[in-house]
Design goal:
single chain, alpha+beta, 5-stranded antiparallel β-sheet, 15 helices, 9 strands, globular
Length: 415
């Protein structure tokens, strides 16, 4: 196996799967079942001929993707000042299944970051791995935003001994103003689930991402056809295992928002707009009855097999010495977000793919044979490091994967 270990020698300057897991069965033809059976041409006929669809198109926000209060945070992120502006940047970070499990307490000189465990993704993240990676990603956005607003930020992880909710403290002082390329990329970053072009991942792009180091982190690349095939097979097998696990399937579907009203109410979760489908296919899907859980499972598995793994130009895995240590998870999440921001600045598409680690943690929770834990660990050539989180990269065929995801506004997650 050809891998490149990028070691962070010192201090240096994070969803989940598409329709991840899916929902309860219900009567009627689901969106995905319709699209698979009828195809695009038949879909066109239905849209053009069925009565009453004009109102449904309006009601489902078909013509307004990425609009409304659920998306205002993407436009408002630079309008605040001081600590508030930093929180506005933090909430745009990548996070598991767009659960947004964060709470901030801010004063002009300090921001405290808390884990909102009520927003856990349940059996998909039984030990809080992904929760802390997402919080680390939010911290990275926050730290990138500080100098852009003339502030110096000093980060302390897990400042309260024994308190697993209070995850970080950021002390703020005045400093020089500097806007980095990573900061500028914050409002443009997306988890891109669309098909990627079948072109190799350039060594220069890989090197730029590899240069983004943090303490106790390593980045491993899987670029050769053999390495990509090995990771792809594990991703697909893990997706199959998740869809066969009733609780993981239910917990994944819990955060899928199938209607415009749900999106605007909750301002979180996964949506049809962010699945990397074409604009027309997405519009047709919105006009159909909500998906069943089993149909969603099938759709996600098909996408994992036929789109996500098949078109990946390369995979990356962020590893740390102890993937069970919350501080290291936070740091690994910071690195993951940093990689994603740099990829965005470079025009590289990136999708977070959590199947392998979600299944490995579920095996541990249920005391099952650690099939995926062993297989994922075997991808890491260094005995002193453990896999934390994985992603795929490439160049998107279109802009279909760059639609906004809903976000709760900074004011609603700040005290």
């Amino acid at each position: 196996m050809t891998t490149t270990a990028i070691v962070a020698p010192g201090l240096g300057d994070p969803s989940g799967a598409a329709l991840d897991g899916p929902g309860e069965d219900e009567p009627g033809v689901s969106r995905r079942t319709f699209l698979h059976r009828a195809g695009l041409v038949a879909g066109t006929a239905v849209v053009l001929s069925a009565g009453g669809l004009s109102y449904r198109a309006y009601d489902q926000g078909v013509l307004e993707p990425g609009e409304g209060g659920a998306y205002a945070a993407w436009d408002d992120w630079q309008r605040g000042t001081g600590a508030g502006a930093l929180v506005s940047a933090a909430i745009l970070a990548a996070n598991p299944h767009n659960s947004q499990a964060w709470v901030f307490a801010s004063t002009p000189s300090r921001i405290d970051v808390f884990a909102d465990r009520a927003r856990s993704t349940g059996a998909l993240d039984p030990f809080g791995r992904e929760l802390h990676v997402g919080l680390g990603a939010a911290l990275e956005n926050l730290l990138q935003a500080a100098p852009a607003h003339g502030l110096q930020a000093r980060l302390t992880l897990l400042p309260t001994a024994g308190n697993l909710v209070h995850v970080a403290r950021v002390d703020l002082t005045r400093g020089p103003t500097r806007r980095s390329a990573l900061y500028e990329a914050i409002p443009h970053r997306r988890t891109d689930r669309s098909p990627y072009r079948g072109t190799p991942f350039p060594a220069a792009a890989q090197s730029r991402l590899s240069a983004l180091t943090l303490p106790q982190t390593r980045l491993y690349w899987y670029v050769t056809p053999a390495d990509r095939a090995r990771v792809s097979a594990l991703m697909i097998s893990a997706a199959q295992a998740i869809t066969a696990d009733q609780q993981q399937s239910r917990d994944g579907f819990r955060l899928f928002r199938s209607s415009w009203d749900e999106i605007q109410k909750h301002k979180d979760g996964l949506t049809l707009d962010t699945q990397g489908l074409s604009a027309f296919t997405t519009a047709v899907a919105k006009l159909l009855p909500p998906s069943t859980r089993s149909a969603g499972d099938k759709f996600w598995l098909d996408q994992t097999r036929n789109t996500h793994t098949k078109t990946a130009a390369a995979y990356g895995i962020v590893a740390v010495p102890d993937a069970g240590d919350d501080a290291q998870r936070l740091t690994g999440g910071r690195l993951l977000e940093r990689i994603h921001l740099q990829a965005t600045a470079d025009g590289v598409a990136l999708q977070h793919m959590n199947q392998m680690t979600e299944r490995a943690d579920r095996e541990r929770q249920l005391s099952l044979t650690p099939t995926f834990a062993r297989a994922t660990q075997a991808l890491i050539p260094d005995a002193g490091y453990q896999p934390l989180v994985a992603f795929r990269v490439g160049f998107a065929q279109s802009a279909d994967g760059r639609r906004k995801s809903p976000r709760r506004p900074a004011a609603s997650v700040t005290s």
